[in-house]
Amino acid sequence: MTTIPTAVGTSLDRRGVAGTVPATPAGRRPRRAPGPSRWAAVGFAAPLLVYLALFYAYPLWRNIDLSVHDYTIRAFVQGNAEFVGLEKYVEVFGSATFPTALWNTAVFTIVSIVLQYSIGLALAVFFRSSFRLSAVLRGMFLVPWLLPLIVSASTWAWMLNSDNGIVNSVLAASGVGQINWLTSPDTALLAVTIANIWLGIPFNLVILYSGLQNIPGDVYEAASLDGAGAWKQFWSITFPLLRPVSAITLLLGLIYTLKVVDVIWVMTTGGPGTSSTTLAVWSYREAFGTGQPDFSPAAAVGNVLILIALVFGFLYLQLQRRQEES
Amino acid sequence: MHHTKRRNAHLRLTAGVATVAVAGLLGACSSGSDAGTGSGDAAGGTYTWWDPYPQHDTSSEWAARVQACGEEAGVTIERTAYDTTALTNQALLAAQEGTSPDVILLDNPAVSTLADTGMLTTVDELGLDTSAIDENLLAAGVVDGDAYGIPIGANTLSLYYNADILAEAGVDPASITDWDSLTAALQAVTDAGHKGITFAGIGTEEGSFQFLPWFWGAGADLRDLDSPEAVAALELWKSWLDAGYAPQSVINNSQNTTWEEFLTGDFAFVENGTWQVNAAAEAEFETGIVQLPGRDGGVAPAPTGGEFIVAPVQTDDGRYEATRQIVECMTTPEGFVETATTFAYYIPPTTEGQEALLEEQPGLEPWVEAVRNAKGRTSDDLGTDYPMISEALWTAVQNALSGAQSPEEALANAQAEAEAATS
User: Fold this and answer.
1) Same structural domain, B192 and B206
2) What integer pLDDT is reported at residue B116 of this predicted model?
3) CATH code (residue B268)
4) Are residues B144 and B190 in the same domain?
5) Same domain, A40 and A105
6) Which of A89, A107, A127 is the last residue of a domain?
7) Which of A259, B38, B100, B408 is least crowded, fewest Cβ atoms below 10 Å from its Cβ?
8) Do B191 and B84 share a domain, yes or no?
9) Distance (Å) from the alpha carbon of B15 to chain A's nearest alpha carbon
């Protein structure tokens, strides 16, 4: 399930490759036939290039190919799909599901990563001061990461059940009426977002915690000598020094969250109706969720997602470059 | 239809189109070597067999039975089991690569979809006799007058009840003959402090499968999703939710979940299938079934579930002879009864088979009755249009039950969507 990250990975990796190959001395003698060392360089790069072509470039190209042809099931088997250009994209953008899915994707992604990041950061700072059992506790926070997604998603679905769920019975005990978490169009998206936040906290905790380890302790010492309190230390030292790590955490979180299908599918199948359908869930449903696989619109939606992820990937590179320059 | 594994199957396929892309890649690689499974000697040799029963492993009776049929035809059978949804996708990919297996046991609504791709042989091409098969069951595999497979058994839906609860509430199951009497029974059991009914309204094919008996029982037609009859059926479900006869959670319930809810002993009724007959007998309370009632009485046509045995097209047509023998071995009256008992329970698709089964298991009489009244989802010449209509239908059910739209509104949208998708 790596359509999107691979796409971004590709663009990053390609930059890497493009950056190393012309750096060989051969670049200075462009007209001469490649010497043995040049061939050796190509030879060493070849496995990587073949790998990239087979596992990144080809699937990506195939996905685009699927989206510009009309792949009905018959055409899929017989291999004679009609070329329709951007018709499938027009269909996707004109669909009643599109605005809902786009909005849901935005809400789901933004709310998820903001809360995952804040909670993850708070916990990382909390665990920075080692105390008794801090390692054990920190380990326990990783549990959501270790559980198979189907287990955690099913458990959440079970806890949020309208009639027998533990969440509702706790709420009932404190006087709140029944909330139809997963079966009401008003709360379904919220419910899957809550589950997804819980799932994403360990990832943020681990990365941010390791980022904190790189901030030298004497900076804090100096700050406390100057009379800076914990709050001041956080905003003036921890947060600014953690910025590069934060940026990559948020970018990875964004990409992971954009492509979430499993959690939502297990909990609500994108329903009721389309009220918790994100772009990724929509793409999955078109391709595999019905008895009639519609690969072309599914691929079109998938490509839209890749584009969104790419935009943020470039934004990140831009930010990084500016940071390096300053 | 073994819905048991469906949800997991979706997950196994993982995210989005990546799978399609990678599978396409494999296809491109292997199409160069045109060997496929079609190679090897026609006589003797190995025949490939796919079925959707991963719960029966190689040491199971079912696997032994498949082998026995192979031996009878003088070949070895290599059996692979997939989850229901995965099986359809695998079959499509294999057809694209030219590596189709010799025999597939395929969920019946998928038959017309696969037949439409030209990847399946007709029963005539294979030289099979289908005259004994019940027409309502065979219909699911008929496209443009040609049958593309033989049902190896059929199951369908009925209304299981908890006899203890009905006795306590003073409801006589025999009195449930139409929607009004059923709703009255639900009210009686709810008044007696129990829960009424549970069913699966999940946003997948299962949701449509469970809604169809009410839809058809009202006299509605799948080509006309927003007819007053269709609205009446959806309003019936909605009214049960509103009155508290059915729990809110039906909107996300799969058929398995509803059965687990029923087994808690809280619910008076559950809409469920033939495959739960054994589980019902083992329940901690006494159970029984009544036929799903039509709106104004009579038995509502429930959709048929169950697999068809189909033979994909092979490049080497010398293979068909042994394939035909394997299929025939699976579809004799004794074969049907054996399949029926292995799968607890599959009702044989022929009168002869049904009689033979009833001799062994007289208790299955109401189920035989239900299967005779049942109707294929892809029947009425819906064929490959059915999946699109079904998606529109379950979406409408979801929207109406969750309160996002009124039943009329939801079904009007569904009709518009279905028309756009099938035109």
Assistant:
1) yes
2) 87
3) 3.40.190.10
4) no
5) no
6) A89
7) B408
8) no
9) 5
Is a pLDDT exceeding 80 seen at residue A142?
yes
The DSSP code for B225 is: T
pLDDT in tens, B3-58: 444 444 444 433 333 444 433 433 333 333 333 344 444 456 899 999 988 888 88
A282: nearest CA partner in chain B: B16
Residue A28 within any structural domain of the chain: no
Chain B residue numbers with beta carbons less than 8 Å from the beta carbon of A274 are 395
Domain count, chain B: 2
Q: Is the dihedral of CA A177, A183, A189, A191 positive or negative?
A: positive
Q: What is the 3-state secondary structure (H, E, C) of A135-187?
A: HHHHHHCCHHHHCCHHHHHHHHHHHCCCCCCHHHHHHHHCCCCCCCCCCCCCC
Residue B266 sits in the same domain as residue B179: yes
Q: What is the pLDDT of residue A230?
A: 86
Average pLDDT for chain B = 86
pLDDT digits (tens, 9 = 90+) for A126-137: 988 878 888 888
**Nearby residues of A30 by Cβ (< 8 Å), 6 or more positions away:** none
Cβ atoms within 10 Å, residue B303:
26
Q: How far is B252 from chain A (nearest CA, A)?
A: 6
Q: Are residues A239 and A304 in the same domain?
A: yes
Question: Which of these ranges, A56-65, A112-121, B23-32, B394-403, has the smallest mean pLDDT?
Answer: B23-32
Residues B345, B410 share a domain: no
Query: What ipTM does this complex have?
Result: 0.75
Q: Closest chain B residue to A153 measured between Cα atoms?
A: B11
Q: Could you report the per-residue pLDDT of A290-313, keeping only the tens digit for each?
A: 777 888 999 999 999 999 999 999
> How many whole angstroms separate alpha carbon B108 and alpha carbon B134?
14
Residue B305 near residue B154, CB atoms below 8 Å? yes
Domain identity same for B206 and B281? yes
Measured between alpha carbons, how far is B143 from B378 in angstroms, rounded to an integer?
9
For range A111-129, the mean pLDDT = 92
Tell me the CA end-to-end span of chain B in Å, nearest whole number: 28
Of A59, A73, A289, nearest to B10 by CB-CB distance is A289
Interface mutation vs chain A, best among B1, B7, B17, most A CBs within 10 Å: B17
Same domain, A286 and A271: yes
Per-residue tokens: B233: 């059926």
The yes-or-no verdict on residue A95 having pLDDT over 80 is yes
- From chain B residues 295-314, the ones with a CB under 8 A of any chain A CB are none
Residue B138 has pLDDT above 50, yes or no: yes
- Per-residue pLDDT tens for B86-134? 888 889 889 988 899 999 999 888 898 899 888 999 999 998 888 889 9
- State which residues form the domain around B358: 40-151+305-373
Q: What is the pLDDT of residue B98?
A: 87
Radius of gyration of chain B (CA): 22
For residue B13, the chain A residues in CB contact (below 8 A) are 288
Provide the chain B residues 72-91 that lie in CB contact (below 8 A) with chain A: 85, 88-89
Task: Count CB-CB contacts under 10 A for residue B265.
Answer: 14
Which residue of chain B has the CA closest to A95? B417
B226-255 confidence digits (pLDDT tens): 999 999 999 999 999 999 999 988 998 889
Q: Do A183 and B388 touch (CB under 8 A)?
A: no
**Containing structural domain, residue A186:** 96-325
Q: Spell B198-236 as b/e; 16+ CB within 10 A means b.
A: bbbbbbbbbbbbbbbbbbbbbbbebeebbbebbbbbbbb
